Amino acid sequence: MEFPPNIWSYVLILPIAVGMLVTALILVWWERRLLGWWQDRKGPNRVWPWAGGFGQAIADAVKLLAKDDWVPPFGDRLLFVLAPAIVAGSMLMAYVVVPWAPRDSGLIITDSNIAILWFLAMSSLAVYGVLLAGFSSNNKYALLGGLRAAAQMVTYEVFMALSLMGVVILAGSFSLLDIVEDQAELWNIGPQFVGFVIFLLAGLAETHRLPFDLPEAEHELTGGFHTEYSGMKFGLIMAAEYLGLIITSAMIVLLFFGGWLLPPALQVLVPTGLTSTLVGLGVFAAKIMVFINFFILLRAAIPRPRYDQLMSLGWKILLPLSLVNVLGTGAWMLWTG
Amino acid sequence: MESLFYIAAVTALASTVMVVTGKNASHALIYLIVSLLSVAVIFFLLGAPFAAALEVVVYAGAIVVLFLFVVMMLNLGKGSVAREHAWLRPSMWILPCLLTVPLFLGLVYALSGEPAQTAAAMVSPKTVGTQLFGPYLLAVELAGILLLAALVGAYHLGRRYLSERREEV
């Protein structure tokens, strides 16, 4: 990795950040349509019916911007304003290390030899946003949600990192470009299936998506940590949730499903140059979309577990399993040399 | 590069001063996070990206979260700010300042001598690993035993609480 990075990296930052925020906006509408379809109802389809109701996303954004932005006078004003910015900011920062297309295309802000650690660091900083949002609201529901979020995310961070170590051992590098190129012959989903399952569950808990959305749990905690938020501050928290959903899907694809690579038999047919960049970008986006839809299906299909069940699943099953996975992968690599 | 270092260093110093003098515990912890993040930037600029990432993941991402967790549980309000205010009288600072004088003199002496070797080469994660499990193996083992002792202690405390709960039921 070169430092300081070349000018091209700086140019890429703005389109990627704006692109991700717009994608998050589209996903809000997309999720509601899919949920409607799976639950035998229509979902938002009235605004711009010729576009499948997509205008709803824009109407929602305008509504959030125009709404009264109320800051609770009984809370901690500084932290209350800071918290949504921390959540959304740290989630956006994680996109810095995502390679969108093959190495020679240059569609990556920075190829770092600590890329995976960077992603883990940013997702661990996002905890503060949720925690501070709950704390600064000075509301018992928000506080309970914040406490739950802190315990849940710190727990699942531990073996989120451990579940990735098997992939790191196989590729011999923390760089995401190296890891994807290492999967040219065989995607990691085969040898690292256990790691994939653990990372999937940890990613769900880390982004507190349903069914692991206990920090929000609207049935018991009103709105959880963001009970007191309104207007665009709530919009930022919402955007951060979808940014987290996209980055988690992107990491799953990069680490376990060969990133921008087609299956080995088809990959040899792709010519080099600009075509490989475009094909790579399309394949990567399609794979990410599959996982986003899978996460939405989980939301529609599975009820929320109890909080102690979530914690004991983490510490008693997933943590030992991920340690065994690291040990087994290490032993296998030593054995085969 | 050098100007980035000075920006990070000034941020680290200023935020650390705010941690020490701050009267609101949760705000002080936010400054502590800023301080840790700027130290991570300094590590990165010195050519140790692995240490920088671990600084953020472990210190800023895990340890301070636990501090904040405890502060939230205690629910400190205006009373504790007033108490801190009473504790942090100006005369409080005399002894700590005197005690730091020898440290400061040592620092001036060290800096006035030969310019220290700064690491120009990048320290890769692989180098850190081979060093930890090579020359520094003893330190790793000692840290492991310390953590094991902490784990056993935490289990003991938790178990006593659980058995008391069971008797009540």
What is the residue-mean pLDDT of chain A, rounded to a whole number?
84
Largest interface (C-beta under 8 Å)? A-B, 31 and 26 residues
The helix count of chain A comes to 12
Look at the helices and sheets of chain A and give the structural class: mainly alpha
Task: Sketch the topology of chain B as an H/E string, one letter per element.
Answer: HHHHHHH
**Which stretches of chain A are low in confidence, meaning pLDDT under 50 for 5 or more residues running?**
none
Radius of gyration of chain B: 21 Å
> Gyration radius of chain A, to the nearest Å?
20 Å
Query: What portion of the residues of chain B fall into strands of 2 or more residues?
Result: under 5%
Q: What structural category characterises the helix and strand content of chain B?
A: mainly alpha
CATH C-level name of the largest domain in chain B: Mainly Alpha
The number of helical elements of chain B comes to: 7
Low-confidence stretches of chain B: none
